[in-house]
Amino acid sequence: MANNPYQDDRGNHDASITRTGGEGTVDPTRRSGPVTDAPGGPFLEGAGMTGGYGKSGPDILHDCTIAVEKGQIAVIVGPNGAGKSTAMKAVFGMLTLRAGHVRLDGHDISGLTPQDRVAQGMGFVPQTSNIFTSMSVEENLEMGAFLRRDDYSATMEQVYTLFPILHEKRRQPAGELSGGQRQQVAVGRALMTEPKVLMLDEPTAGVSPIVMDELFDRIIEVARTGISILMVEQNARQALEIADRGYVLVQGRNAFTGTGQELLADPEVRRSFLGG
Description:
This protein has helices at 84-92, 114-120, 137-144, 153-162, 164-168, 179-191, 209-224, 236-242, 260-265, 267-273, and strands at 36-37, 44-51, 61-68, 73-77, 97-104, 107-108, 122-125, 197-201, 228-232, 245-250, 253-258. The protein is α/β, with parallel strands linked by helices.
């Protein structure tokens, strides 16, 4: 058995791919429920969402509603611990809702697992651990097309057009890229699934102001293609400037809702969340 290539050394030993600390928060035994027709309403909506992590954990979201129309940008902002990322994860199916529902493109998908929501048209980019560092840029993008059975070369060219630096560095290990370039890889990989909705959890975290502006410009370009954008962002003022719709969460509840410009002009929002 000593010559068996699968003996003792089985599996990928890259810590960026395999979790050495155990499984994540998604229940591997969970199975999807049915998808039902739910016509009307916004293109994507998480309505009246109440829930938290685990079957017996405390609720983090309390009757929270988040929505975005087709080809528009919706931004979730608020103080630390407000439940912003939790709200996005709830929309993506990463925690079980005790109340509320999620609708996408005229269908109730509340019973679907995250992987099945990807198949329905959701692309999700987490804040951290969102690339495979030992794999090349191009291999990362190819991983995004894992559900597809068609020729995805045209989509890859579109990603390279959106992020030209990725084409230049396509043979380079993604772990050698700068923080902003890694975010481009993560967004590009999500776009390889041809999503209807692109969900971004703090895409500009840890990048310079110049890189932040460039990423926001690319996000606007993606929305112009008809893809809806739902984004959690720590740079609230800059994010609201590009948002069609904005949501301010406080302790898992909707505190303020409006267009990006309305929230920027609201004296209470400015004083409490935008530094005056």
